[in-house]
TrEMBL record:
GO molecular function list: ATP binding; ligase activity, forming carbon-nitrogen bonds; zinc ion binding
Cofactor: Zn(2+)
Catalytic reaction annotation: 7-carboxy-7-carbaguanine + NH4(+) + 2 ATP = 7-cyano-7-carbaguanine + 2 AMP + 2 diphosphate + 2 H(+)
Stated name of the protein: 7-cyano-7-deazaguanine synthase
UniProt-listed InterPro entries: QueC (IPR018317), Rossmann-like_a/b/a_fold (IPR014729)
Record note on cofactor: Binds 1 zinc ion per subunit.
Span of the signal peptide: none
Gene for this chain: queC
Ligand binding (ATP): V17, S18, G19, G20, M21, D22, S23, A24, T25, A26, V27
Alphabetized SUPFAM superfamilies for the sequence: Adenine nucleotide alpha hydrolases-like (SSF52402)
Family: Belongs to the QueC family.
Role played: Catalyzes the ATP-dependent conversion of 7-carboxy-7-deazaguanine (CDG) to 7-cyano-7-deazaguanine (preQ(0)).
Functional pathway: Purine metabolism; 7-cyano-7-deazaguanine biosynthesis
Length: 235
């Protein structure tokens, strides 16, 4: 796609879009802040990669994204050690009170994804990279912590061209999933075309960690989650 002649470097942002509710909300948050969205989506061998890509593409069409960059990152599946990419590991049922690193953790995934997103941002003269990570992620995922993003900002600063200025933005890093749902509802995020389930491509299982946190967020926000579930427990 071609750039609008009136668009400036300062109002374009690469957004890591997984197809889930957090990244979809990050898209709308970036747009609300005045950025033109450049979508960056990866398939890394996760169980629901086809559904996730479909949702990311549908969202890109919905918001008329400036570009959609899809990258295959099969090395993460080859490395393994995650229930999202290893068929011999079961996706565990939800344990919302656990502070242990879950089996769904993909080793150092966000560093891999942010590195590629930064490459994409530098190549397209974007001035920001948005990621939808939040506080309930970093209780269990070490690469979702504020300290990690602060450190990665320094990596961006020293690892790009001298004239390149890219801000790493994690707008929800101190927010709960409920906060994100409420913000997204305020912004009009089409949650019916997002997907969070770790296990299934249709319907969502309702009992994995991702489903549980999502359902809990909608329940606390007082709104019914618009996607289909095999089970809808009260969280």
């Amino acid at each position: 796609m071609t750039d609008d002649d009136q668009t400036t470097d300062d109002d374009r942002a690469v957004i890591l879009v997984s197809g889930g509710m957090d990244s979809a909300t990050a898209v709308y948050e970036a747009m609300d802040r005045g950025y033109e969205p450049y979508f960056f989506h990866t398939s890394y061998g996760q169980e629901t990669e086809t559904k996730e890509r479909e949702c990311a593409e549908a969202l890109a069409e919905e918001v008329d994204a400036a570009d959609f960059c899809h990258v295959e990152t099969r090395h993460l599946a080859a490395i393994g050690a995650s229930s999202l990419t290893d068929a011999e590991m079961d996706v565990a049922d939800a344990d919302l009170d656990s502070e242990e690193v879950p089996t769904s953790y993909v080793p150092f995934r966000n560093a891999n994804l942010l590195s590629m997103a930064t490459s994409y941002a530098e190549a397209t003269d974007c001035s920001a990279v948005f990621i939808g990570a939040h506080s309930e992620d970093f209780s269990g995922y070490p690469d979702c912590r504020p300290d990690f993003f602060d450190a990665f900002q320094r990596v961006i600063d020293v690892g790009t061209k001298p004239e390149t200025e890219i801000e790493l933005v994690a707008p929800f890093v101190e927010w709960s999933k409920t906060d994100i749902a409420e913000r997204g509802l305020e912004l009009g995020v089409p949650y019916d075309i997002t997907w969070s389930c770790y296990r299934e491509e249709a319907p969502a299982c309702g009992t994995c960690d991702a489903c549980a946190f999502r359902l809990q967020a909608f329940q606390r926000a007082g709104v019914e989650d618009p996607i289909d579930y095999a089970e809808r427990p009260d969280y």
